[in-house]
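User: quick one, sequence for these tokens?
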């Protein structure tokens, strides 16, 4: 029988009471931190950094040391999966990721290679092991993967897209081909997350960054359904006998909250377009909620950051099951000092609210 966790992040995921609202930030490690830029330069480039377990461990720990956030998130990228399946991956300077050759037909899918995470993604698993050792039980570690739909968008578009022309073309013209790709990805994502859990990830987050570009019906059929398949296959207890919560983050999908609750996840991550107080009423204690400060608040003055934090904490109220986060990731041009203000505000203001 799993025992109750002691870390406030893991407690909040299970909707257990905490004295202070836990906080971590999506993309908390990255280019806005000068110490990250130094290590990236040492590695040569971003992908080489991801593939070096010692250096990837170092950058994972940077925001934990600097800000005292309540969770570490594995430093890697969602696009290592398509690379492990045989696609070429490069990060061109400025224009974002490039995956090639693109997938556009049933025949293209046959080129994808099967993935054994211990083999092609062994460097990620080794990083998980090193991070756990370095954290020494002080801070829990979150593992992650892209959702099958979000990974498919990059594999079919060949990179980032504004219009999603090719993946939506496939969705409407060749739905059977897209379903085959998504089924294949569901299997790989589940195996990959299970391997991260076996190596010590204490929670896992599924990043469905592009769920929100779909209509409600298409979201259910092409994004949520494949995430549900992943969740059903996950080992929800870690090697230490503790529960491993699953966080689902579908950006732009607040209207689909009730359906996401039914996916079997423990936590739903929300972007800033959803009202957190109403969301809490809608989920009726069935899941915890993570989020959902507009990251752009970090461009404002420290007093404004604190005001926004207070508003959000008050909207959720003195109830268990809230993990403070941004509604999307940290941006490159943000000031680390605003994160210091943010963390202090969440710690101080939540203690007051949770006492009432
Ligand atoms: O949250 C963390 O601190 C962990 C690290 C993390 C990264 N990417 C590091 C990264 C995580 C969880 C991701 C996930 C990821 N990667 C997503 C889903 C989350 C989201 O932001 O919506 C997506 C869509 C990707 C794909 C990807 N990787 C893009 C679109 C880019 C940006 C390209 C650019 O030039 O801005 C990346 C690169 C990337 N991933 C960086 C980092 C720190 C920047 C790389 C660098 O150092 O140059």
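Assistant:
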């Amino acid at each position: 029988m799993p025992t109750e966790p002691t870390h406030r992040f893991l407690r909040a995921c299970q909707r257990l009471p905490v004295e202070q609202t836990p906080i971590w930030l999506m993309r908390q490690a990255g280019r806005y931190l000068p110490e990250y830029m130094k290590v990236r330069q040492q590695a040569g480039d971003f992908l080489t950094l991801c593939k070096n377990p010692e250096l990837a461990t170092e950058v994972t720990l940077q925001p934990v040391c600097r800000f005292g956030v309540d969770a570490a998130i594995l430093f890697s990228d969602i696009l290592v999966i398509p690379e492990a399946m045989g696609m070429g991956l490069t990060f061109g300077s400025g224009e974002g990721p490039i995956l090639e050759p693109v997938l556009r037909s049933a025949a293209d899918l046959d080129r994808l290679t099967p993935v054994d995470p211990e083999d092609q993604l062994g460097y990620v698993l080794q990083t998980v092991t090193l991070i756990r050792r370095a954290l020494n039980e002080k801070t829990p570690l979150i593992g992650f993967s892209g959702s099958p739909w979000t990974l498919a968008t990059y594999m079919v578009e060949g990179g980032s897209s504004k219009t999603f022309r090719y993946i939506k073309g496939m969705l409407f013209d060749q739905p059977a081909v897209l379903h085959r790709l998504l089924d294949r990805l569901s299997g790989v994502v589940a195996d990959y997350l299970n391997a991260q859990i076996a190596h010590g990830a204490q929670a896992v987050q599924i990043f469905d960054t592009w769920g929100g570009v779909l209509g409600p019906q298409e979201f259910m059929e092409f994004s949520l359904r494949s995430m549900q398949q992943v969740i059903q296959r996950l080992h929800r207890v870690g090697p230490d006998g503790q529960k491993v919560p699953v966080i689902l983050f579908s950006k732009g999908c607040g209207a689909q909250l009730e359906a996401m609750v039914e996916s079997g996840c423990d936590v739903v991550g929300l972007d800033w377009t959803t009202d957190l107080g109403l969301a809490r009423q809608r989920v009726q204690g069935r899941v915890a909620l993570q989020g959902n400060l507009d990251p752009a608040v970090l461009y404002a003055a420290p007093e404004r950051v604190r005001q926004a934090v207070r508003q959000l904490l008050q909207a959720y109220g003195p109830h268990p099951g809230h993990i403070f986060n941004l509604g999307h990731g940290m941006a490159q041009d943000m000031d680390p000092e605003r994160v210091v203000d943010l963390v202090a505000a969440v710690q101080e203001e939540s203690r007051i609210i949770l006492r009432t």
